[in-house]
Design goal:
Blueprint (H helix, E strand, L loop, with lengths): L3 E8 L3 E6 L4 E6 L2 E3 L9 H6 L6 E6 L8 E5 L1 H4 L17 H15 L9 E3 L2 E12 L1 H5 L2 H10 L3 E5 L9 E13 H10 L9 H4 L3 E6 L4 E7 L2 E2 L5 E3 L4 H15 L6 H9 L6 E4 L2 E4 L1 H25 L5 E5 L1 H16 L5 E3 L3 H5 L1 H32 L1
Parallel strand pairs: 1-8, 8-10, 11-17, 17-18
Antiparallel strand pairs: 1-2, 2-3, 4-6, 5-6, 5-9, 7-8, 9-10, 11-12, 12-13, 12-14, 15-16
Helix pairs in contact: 6-13, 8-10, 10-11
Amino acid sequence: MSKTRIAAIDVGNDSIKALFGKADFEINIPNVMARDTEDRPVIGIEELNENDPLDGIHIKVHSPALKENNVIYRVGNLATKSDHATELDLGSSKSEEDQTLVLLFATLALDAVREENGPSFKKTNQVIEANYTLGTGLPLREVKEGKDVGYRSQLLSSVHQVEFLVTPKYQGLKVNIKFDEVKVYPEGFAAYINLVMDRDLNIINRDLIDKRILIQDIGGLSTDIAVIKNRKVDDDKAQGFNIGVSESLEAIREEIRTKHGVELDSRRDVVEIITKKNDRNHIMVKGSRTSVHDITDRILLELAKKQYRHLRNIWQKNSQTEICYFVGGGAMVLKDYLKALNNSLDGYNIDFFEDEKESIWMMANAYYKLISDFNRKKQKEVEFTQTEKKSVKS
């Protein structure tokens, strides 16, 4: 019998961030996939086995939860090199896209096949039986529409199989993924938990706990603004918007291609150009360092204005708000533009996380805290029940 293992996974529109076990293993891969064939050409198998599996994820996925079943995919870094790679598009619902599930299953399978997990999961021949207790989330808009219920039941009701095809180190292995429990959290609520509590759910930010705050979480395809007072998220006042940074990143990518003839593999490449510490907003064109500031400034300032309007509207409806925290990968991309707008316009009390990793990993960390707490309580209940049974027998 397999033990169950904790997994906290943020299926972000830019990338997947995941924490496993005692948070001793993490995965971060681009949210990109491309259909492929079984016989992907590859160099000799010896060389293949020396490569990083995350750079060559080539899988077949079988799951009743998928609209298109038994399809072969390149995933993550490998998919970015494909001519027909897909990234999630504006207007799509994260809970209803095959891409969300494929990336989720691939991430879990990459954890399950690790040698370190040998004692945890049963392995027969080349098949690993992996049981997980999963904490994940959906945009507030989708949770308000009740889509979390169907999403959770899809995951719980079936066994989902990932077969590694031409993948370094793991070729030929199959992973059967089963969930003992799945918790789907609204993203705004998760951000609040992460701000005020540590991994044992002890309060770490007493100054914040009783404040009236907003949390504006800017993702790739959506923006959630959580309204928090009396230590709770006000579900009625919290709002989700169908606007993120993906469309703007795509516009920058297209304009760079048209103007400079440079093809960037994915939106993540655009993010790196915008946020890197050295040579920010510069690319190499035919070996020459070239500024793309004119492109990025124009497109991102336009998006920052839209995000700022949402902040202004929500703040006006919640006039006693004391501070707004901007979080998520999109907040890192728009930080300088939002600060400049705020300084020249309303001068709200806003804050960002200067640590880029902390902001980008905020959701995964929050899901980890919440699912770990759920697991601890469940274990205590089991222990209590077993103690009760023993006392009745005696």
